[in-house]
Amino acid sequence: MRAAFYDRTGASADVLRVEDVDRPEPGPGEVRIRVEYSGVNPTDWKSRSGLTVRPIDGFQIPHQDGAGVIDAVGAGVDSGRVGQRVWTFLAAGGRKWGTAAQWSVVPDRQAVTLPDGISGELAASLGVPAMTAHRCLFADGPVAGKTVLVAGGAGAVGHFAIELAKHAGARVVTTVSGPEKADLAARAGADLVVNYREPGAAEAIKGFGLVDRVVELALDANLQLDLSVIAPNSEIVTYASTPADPALPVRACMSANVVLRFVLLYGIPAAALDHAAADITTALAAGALSELPVHRYDLADIVAAQDAVEAGAVGKVLVVPG
């Protein structure tokens, strides 16, 4: 099969190659997927660059997320799964067979059956972003009737956080940096969209009501804003790191009795991941989740695809293995 891979970390153009490799066979408890689309996330270029150190077992086919059709199953897996359309998560989590290839092999539970009528583009966009959004929203309990602040509502995690929160019965306010992103966040269903670069952002949010839960992507930049709009005994949940660690205003956090939660998908308990996958699929079936603008790249253009994500492309970057 054709696959993109690297056997050492570094700049994309220096280490990524596209060549023929042996097509993998599913082992016990595994399924093999003919990949239709491979979703690219920041975690993918960070692992490839060496920014986040992960061991390489001979070579690494990148990308955690994808969509396709099961064409073979290993021992112990229901043979009736052959032919199912699925979405995947954490395909390259501690494994060499990521989705940037014509086929991928994943544990059975990480190939989630798609409801009818869901596009491959949307399915391949789920994985890391939607499951991260789910954990941030629900690790501290339901959000029905609560007010949720989603920082960066035009990003992939922010997009699905808005939609999952709305589907669960929350009121949602989100922050963005400009008109294009504001339009994306509004289309995702946010009740209020605030440009955080404009004066009066905190006042606009407080006018909407104090916030019960924050889904945060830039804690160092936004913690003061979060603390100024959060209700007592609430949660700020962050899923991304930045070069500068925040200076923690301990007294302000104590005064708010706030909980700071940190989320990294690779360390979430399996039961919570399975719960997220089930909830996301239910939301899909209900029509509650939608596509971001898609940027498609052929497998041969894997370097450009990863570079686009690293440069902060607005929307979702997908690779078509062919």
What does this entry look like structurally?
This protein is α/β, with parallel strands linked by helices and 322 residues long. It folds into two domains: 2-125 and 291-320, Alpha-Beta Complex (Quinone Oxidoreductase, Chain A, domain 1); 129-266, Rossmann fold (3-Layer(aba) Sandwich), CATH 3.40.50.720. Helix content is 31%, strand content 26%. It has helices at 12-15, 42-49, 120-124, 127-138, 156-167, 179-187, 201-208, 219-229, 250-256, 270-285, 302-310; strands at residues 2-5, 17-20, 30-39, 65-73, 85-88, 103-107, 111-113, 147-151, 171-176, 192-195, 211-216, 230-238, 259-262, 294-298, 316-320. Strands 3, 4, 5, 6, 7, 14 and 15 form a seven-stranded mixed β-sheet that branches. It has a six-stranded parallel β-sheet with strand order 10-9-8-11-12-13, with helices on both faces. Helix 9 links the parallel strand 12 and strand 13. Helix 4 (127-138) packs across helix 5 (156-167), helix 4 (127-138) crosses helix 10 (270-285) and helix 7 (201-208) crosses helix 8 (219-229).
In short, what is this structure?
The chain has 322 residues and is α/β, with parallel strands linked by helices. The strands form three sheets. Strands 3, 4, 5, 6, 7, 14 and 15 form a seven-stranded mixed β-sheet that branches. A six-stranded parallel β-sheet has the order 10-9-8-11-12-13, sandwiched between helices. Helix 8 links the parallel strand 11 and strand 12.
How many separate helices?
11
CATH class of the largest domain: Alpha Beta
Which blocks of ≥5 consecutive residues have pLDDT under 50?
none
What shape does the CA trace take? globular
Helix content: 25-40%
The beta-strand count equals 15
